[in-house]
Design a protein that fits this description.
heterodimer, A: about 525 residues, five-stranded antiparallel beta sheet, three-stranded antiparallel beta sheet, 15 helices, about 30% helix, B: alpha/beta, five-stranded mixed beta sheet, four-stranded mixed beta sheet, 14 helices, 9 strands, about 10% strand, elongated
């Protein structure tokens, strides 16, 4: 297929043919063979072994959250969500302060002593670092254990907290560090952040929603007095729709990144998670091929969608009807949109919303882009943000020659009012200039100036689809809510008004709404894990 | 074989019909704490629902009050009735040994300045054995599954108590261990500590004073944990979220861990003697019921009215208000009174020179109703400590936020 593409690229007909084929792929118009889907399922359920880097690639690891995709994605069937025990985790610096006789050359080393994952291979220092549950060198494992032991949380053998109550407790506990190098002291405070495993049922349908539907949804909400969801515009101009931060635009890219970050399976595009105690180590070859990634993506796209369970009990039917009406009347349906484009029963607008200051973490959402224009003849604006798997983290600032600054407090909101992105040869770049989605095919490297509006990116989250919610507890981005009532009550920020209207409903109506939500279940025909 | 099959089908059909009949029968609510006949089965259960609805204030005969109590709706009746009916449908055998009672105990509007302060609405659902010994309870209105679970838990607690009738300490420990297993770690540690401290005590505490002091100790132990827990679970921040919390407490899951923690310490207690201090702990004020609920108080009430009638023309009468459970360990009048000039100790001494009675809210409410007193607000802006009833004048409330000299001077003028 790649040879065909490179041949066709040589002439104009070939280019248009490629575009037509690409449109067909992205719209899932072309049929996928059952063999590919079965191959994808096998790979999804495969317990990946470690490899041998001296003869090929290193396989699973060095750092990983699970040995297979289904190890975390299994609630309600293969591809489902995971409970708190399978939460992924990261550490984020709240603040730090250097004091004493400050030696610029030793600063990064001290931060690395706190946790080596903050220091990138290129020497830059970010304010977040993922902490995969398993694997790594003995040195890294020891640092991980020392860090996590500061948080009084009961953990499962899978790595995550045993339940929602433990998630909440671990959210509260600060991680403190005090270290010294010569006469220079570093005091730092950090926090553990977690991400709950989401269900992939119906992902193919979500993948196929046209961008213009999301654009229209944003426009609809721009006139709402309380709710102001916004698009997640990624650096390549595409619109994010997957992940808690909507920081991935296509399902195949989501799979690509998950392989590299959750299982440490290096792909052609994504490096595997690095053991920071062995920064010089490189995997000699990719662990997973593009064909395999595409097969897994096709399998996930083929997963059935969740359903609304019908009851034959009269009281339940009446309660569901009442609950659905309450869901709409208090305003839940403004963000948890029942039908998005052609996808009925999704209950999400796939937009980012500010959920209030208690729902923050430092792998933030993409900044809000208000305008994009080609930029000619300008230099690179130093980037202060880096795009990790979980979101956008912040590079610790510092002047040349002085290492990082003497003190730092992680920002809760984005601060930049503009940035530049570089678009490379042959890359499709989607531009949202007005409500109409325009694509510009670029032939050479080009810089795009993006005008940004600062927002509380650390607390902006994509509206999670509610389909299948009855089978995907616990809830919220880190699984801190055990029940639907807790999840509703934790709605803050722009959703606080909706939450308050829910609590002001008569008890009968509130219970009815929960009864309605409990009809949104995982697909009964989801493939079951092979034992 | 065919006969056996037909017979089992018939039995199933009968069961289904009985279940349907039980589910469709309207809920029959009984009189609170009515006597249970000796022939009632040992496995009889009584469900008692207490809400903070309030009753009309007009004076009327005790017969009228009793008749009204059977028909006055409580705010959660329809939701609760549906839960009960669904449970009875699944367990039709329960309908013959489950009795249902309710009463209201909210603040009368005449004592809250004419405003209804009983919102958001509250409820507690308790289950007792045939002797009104508490077996389990929930704060809020249970769903069908939750109600069934409550009944089954109560049956289990009863079985544990019966099996350990000769060793109540062991029974207490068994119920405590059972609760600990059901709690998250957040609750387990304080629960274990408190259970360890209580294990040497007799687990059946019936005396009202004992219930009151025990509830206070339990409240002091578990309330801070509960508040910390709900802050994390529901995103509550401070006192301004009080009404949100009360609305959330209409759902039994909110305070379930608190109930589970309290159950071992209250299991087997005489609920008729315990429910009042329990409501004080839960609602922050003394409950006020219709007279028919509080049979023991009726004779005392007549005595109070007669005493007042004999004094009111000639002398100022002082009524001191009994503090609630949460405040009664603070001495009143305050011993270390920093007020310049006249202290509360002095003002209280002056009050004792006049006809003086200390009343709780229940007694005051009946008195207020029977003597057709105007509406007053006992709680705002600060808590009223005394009520001064002067001849041919309206009632004067003396609040703890006011200077005591005002009170003393009013008394001296009598």
């Amino acid at each position: 297929m790649n040879k065909l593409f490179s041949t066709l690229r040589c002439n104009r007909f070939g280019q248009w043919f490629c575009i037509a084929v690409a449109c067909g792929w992205s719209a899932n118009v072309l049929a996928v063979s059952p063999g590919t889907i079965q191959q994808g399922r096998t790979l999804f359920e495969r317990n990946w072994p470690t490899g041998n880097p001296t003869i090929s690639s290193d396989g699973l690891g060095p750092l990983f959250n699970g040995t297979s995709c289904v190890a975390c994605h299994h609630q309600g069937g293969v591809g489902g969500s995971g409970d708190a025990r399978f939460n992924a985790q990261a550490i984020g610096i709240e603040r730090y302060q250097f004091s004493g006789l400050i030696r610029a050359q030793d600063k990064v080393g001290l931060i690395s002593n706190f946790f080596p994952g903050f220091v990138q291979p290129d020497g830059s220092v970010m304010n977040t670092a993922s902490i995969p549950h398993h694997g790594g060198s003995a040195q890294y494992a020891s640092v991980r254990e020392s860090l996590l032991s500061q948080i009084n949380t009961m953990r499962s053998e899978h790595g995550g907290p045993v339940n929602a109550s433990e998630v909440r407790l671990s959210n509260q506990a600060p991680i403190r560090y005090s270290g010294q190098s010569h006469l220079m002291k570093l005091t730092a405070e950090a926090r553990l952040f977690q991400r709950n495993t989401t269900a992939m049922f119906g992902a193919g349908l979500v993948d196929a929603i046209p961008d213009k539907v999301l654009v229209q949804q944003e426009r609809l909400q721009s006139r709402h007095p309380e709710i102001s969801g916004r698009l997640s515009i990624l650096r390549d101009g595409s619109l994010g729709r997957f992940g808690w931060r909507a920081n991935v635009s296509k399902l195949v890219r989501f799979v690509d990144r998950a392989c590299a970050n959750e299982l440490s399976l290096e792909t052609k595009r994504m490096p595997q998670a690095t053991d920071p105690a062995r920064p010089g180590y490189r995997n000699p070859a990719p662990d997973i091929s593009d064909d395999q990634i595409e097969a897994m993506s096709e399998f996930i796209a083929s997963l059935p969608r969740p359903i609304e369970r019908q009851s034959d009990d009269h009281d339940t039917l009446e309660a569901v009807k009442l609950g659905r009406a309450a869901f709409e009347s208090v305003g839940c349906a403004v963000c948890h949109v029942p039908k998005l484009g052609a996808v009925d029963g999704l209950y999400s607008d796939l937009l980012l919303h500010d959920m209030g200051p208690n729902m923050y973490d430092y792998d933030a959402a993409e900044p809000q882009v208000i305008k994009q224009t080609p930029a000619v003849g300008v230099g690179e604006v130093p980037g202060s943000r880096q795009h990790s798997y979980y979101g956008v983290s912040t590079q610790l600032p510092g002047a040349a020659g002085s290492g990082v600054n003497d003190s730092f407090v992680s920002p809760r909101s984005s601060q930049a009012t503009e940035d530049y992105v570089t678009v490379r040869t042959g890359q499709e770049f989607g531009r949202i200039v007005t409500a109409v989605n325009q694509t510009a095919r670029v032939r050479a490297e080009m810089r795009i100036l993006r005008k940004l509006k600062p927002t509380n990116t650390s607390q902006e989250w994509k509206t999670p689809p509610l389909w299948g919610i009855a089978d995907s507890a616990p809830y919220m981005h880190d699984g801190r809510a055990e029940t639907l009532l807790e999840a509703i009550s934790l709605h803050e920020g722009e959703s606080a008004g909706t939450r308050d209207r829910f609590l002001q409903l008569p008890l009968r109506d509130r219970k009815a709404m929960i009864t309605f939500l409990e009809t949104l279940v995982a697909p009964p025909n989801a493939p079951k894990p092979v034992l | 074989m065919r006969i056996a099959f037909t017979l089992s089908c018939l039995l199933c059909l009968v069961g289904v019909v009985r279940a349907e009949e039980a589910a469709s029968k309207p809920i029959a609510w009984g009189t609170p704490f009515q006597s249970v006949s000796a022939s009632t089965a040992d496995n009889h259960l009584t469900v008692i629902v207490i809400t903070n609805d309030t009753y009309p204030d007009q004076a009327r005969s005790a017969t009228d009050v009793e008749a009204e109590s059977k028909h006055q709706p409580i705010w959660c009746e329809s939701v609760l009735s549906q839960s009960v009916r669904s449970t009875l449908k699944r367990r039709p055998g329960l309908s013959e040994r489950l009795a249902l009672q309710f009463f209201t105990a909210g603040l009368p509007v005449k004592l809250t300045g004419g405003e209804n302060r009983n919102l958001p609405a509250r409820a507690i659902v308790a289950i007792c054995d045939r002797d009104y010994r508490l077996l389990g309870f929930r704060i809020g209105v249970p769903s069908a599954e939750e109600f069934q679970s409550l009944v089954e838990d109560a049956e289990e607690v009863r079985s544990i108590r019966q099996l350990n009738a000769d060793e109540p300490t062991q029974g207490f420990q068994a119920i405590a261990d059972r609760s600990i297993e059901r709690l998250t770690r957040f609750w387990q540690t304080p629960m274990r500590d408190l259970a360890g401290a209580f294990v040497d005590e007799e687990s059946d505490g019936d005396a009202p004073d004992r219930s009151r002091s025990r509830l206070k100790t339990l409240g002091e132990a578990f309330d801070p944990i509960y508040l910390a827990d709900v802050k994390l679970r529901f995103g509550l921040v401070d006192a301004s979220d009080q009404n949100r919390l009360i609305a959330l407490e209409q759902h039994t899951q909110t305070k379930l861990s608190w109930c589970e923690s309290m159950t071992p310490f209250l299991a087997g207690c005489d609920f008729e003697g315990t429910w009042r201090p329990l409501m004080e702990l839960l609602w922050g004020h003394q409950p006020v019921t219709q007279e028919s609920v509080d049979q023991a108080g009726q004779s005392g009430q007549a005595d109070l009215l007669a005493w007042y009638d004999s004094q009111k023309e000639t002398d100022a009468v002082v009524i001191s208000l009994k503090p609630t459970l949460r405040l009664d360990h603070f001495p009143w009048p305050p011993i270390m009174d920093e007020t310049r000039g006249m202290s509360w100790v002095d003002a209280h001494a002056e009050a004792l020179r006049h006809p003086f009675r200390q009343l709780d809210l229940q007694q005051l409410a009946v008195f207020w109703r029977e003597r057709k007193m105007p509406a007053v607000d006992l709680f705002r802006p600060t808590l009223a400590r005394y009520v001064l009833l002067q001849p041919n004048k309206g009632p004067v409330l003396i609040r703890q936020g006011e200077p005591p000299a005002r009170f003393a001077n009013l008394l001296k003028k009598q």
